[in-house]
Design a protein that fits this description.
- The chain has two helices and two strands.
- It is of the alpha+beta class.
- Helices cover 28% and strands 11% of the residues.
Length: 71
């Protein structure tokens, strides 16, 4: 599971069991063989930009890993 802290621009990957019931899923992809949590954190991005590289962009890149589109 991925989420982003907008005020800090930080990407976080965590097990869904640690999240409250107030969160809802917007989709899921199976984990591809050979991927690591670090791959998802990296896909989240390190240069947060509200307009051009935000949480939505980062989560799409993470979903792409699940589809086998590794970069």
């Amino acid at each position: 599971l991925f989420f982003c802290l907008l005020s800090l621009g930080q990407t976080v990957v965590t097990n869904a069991k640690h999240m409250s019931g107030a969160w809802t899923s917007d989709g899921a992809q199976p984990v591809q063989p050979g991927t690591r949590v670090a791959d998802y954190v990296k896909a989240g991005g390190s240069n947060y930009n509200m307009a051009f590289d935000n949480c939505h962009h980062g989560s799409q890149r993470m979903m792409d890993i699940g589809k086998g589109k590794r970069k």
